[in-house]
Write a structure and sequence with these properties.
- By secondary structure, this protein is an alpha+beta fold.
- Helices cover 44% and strands 15% of the residues.
- The protein is built from two helices and six strands; from the N terminus they run H-H-E-E-E-E-E-E.
- The protein has a three-stranded antiparallel sheet. Strands 2-6-3 form a three-stranded mixed sheet, with no helix packed on it.
- Helix 1 packs antiparallel against helix 2.
- Mean pLDDT is 79; it is low at 13-21 and 35-45.
């Protein structure tokens, strides 16, 4: 029986002749994608950034700088507004203080007028000076009450350290210890809004 001679295998890199089969690279491999023996081309992942990517980075950097400048401008404007508000508040507070002083002084003017009137009549009728001074005193007390400082001169009440100031002690067996038995100097104003406390003498038992 005759045998056919075997055809020799073509060397590596040789082009197959017509009729001969050629091994093709498997799909999805580096050889199928066109990668040469030196590895992937310059467009593969991990390669140097192209002109488009550099332009995007510059645009993002410029946008960040612009936003930072805008925030800094807003911060400076807020500081300026706060300083202007502080100065305006200080001016308004000073105006309110001046107006309150003027109202208080105006409330005392009638007292001064009546004192001068009483002094002008003292030479003609010396006895009228007492009644005039008493009337002026009552007017001054009423003025202080309208300003929020009512007169406090009660006796027979328990001692209150928030309203009273002890300047003397009296032995009195008829009243409870710590009772106000004498007012030595009247006070003006209520607790929490006191112009001055009441100077009193309180009772004690032997």
């Amino acid at each position: 029986m005759s045998t056919q001679p075997q055809q020799p295998e073509p060397p590596e890199g040789a082009v197959a002749e017509p009729g001969q089969e050629q091994d093709l690279p498997a799909p999805g491999t580096a050889e199928a994608r066109g990668a040469g023996p030196e590895g992937p081309g310059p467009d593969a992942a991990g390669g140097p950034a192209g002109p488009g990517e550099k332009a995007d980075e510059k645009a993002e950097h410029a946008a960040a700088l612009a936003e930072l400048e805008e925030l800094e401008d807003r911060w400076r404007r807020a500081l300026a507004d706060l300083e202007n508000l502080r100065k305006r508040h200080a001016r308004e507070l000073e105006r309110e203080r001046a107006a309150e002083r003027a109202r208080t002084a105006a409330a005392l003017l009638p007292v001064i007028d009546n004192l001068e009137l009483a002094l002008s009549h003292a030479g003609a009728d010396p006895g009228s000076i007492v009644a005039g001074v008493r009337a002026v005193r009552d007017q001054a007390v009423d003025t202080l009450a309208r300003l929020g400082y009512a007169r406090q001169d009660e006796t027979g009440v328990p001692f209150d350290p928030a309203r009273h100031e002890v300047v003397g002690v009296v032995e009195d067996p008829d009243v409870a210890p710590g009772t106000v038995v004498q007012v030595l100097r009247p006070g003006y104003g209520e607790t929490g809004n006191q112009l001055r406390p009441v100077a009193v003498a309180v009772a004690k038992r032997e």
